[in-house]
Amino acid sequence: MTSRAARRQCIAVRAESRSGGGGGFLAGVLVGGAVFGVLGFLFAPQISAALLTDEQRLKLPRFLEEEAKDPEKTKQDLADKIASLNSAIDDVATQLKAKEVTTEVEPDSVVA
Fold it and tell me: Which residues cross the membrane (predicted)?
């Protein structure tokens, strides 16, 4: 009889996680994002070259297509722009100083 009773006994197995299981999901999202990000980075240029014609491809902005300029010329261009900006700042500063002088003089003339 004990063998029949053992056969009829139902066994239930239950798995539990103490942390709630959210960490596993987050780890899966991060690993999956990294793997598919790398795959997309590697294969996207090849796929777009196979699917698109030259007219359909995105054109780079003009400043990205330009060839490398001479570093000395670039340095001189930047120096010219900085000099121009400094000149404009000096002009504005003198205008503001002139306005301060006129506003200081006006209250005295009104009182007198």
Answer: 21-44
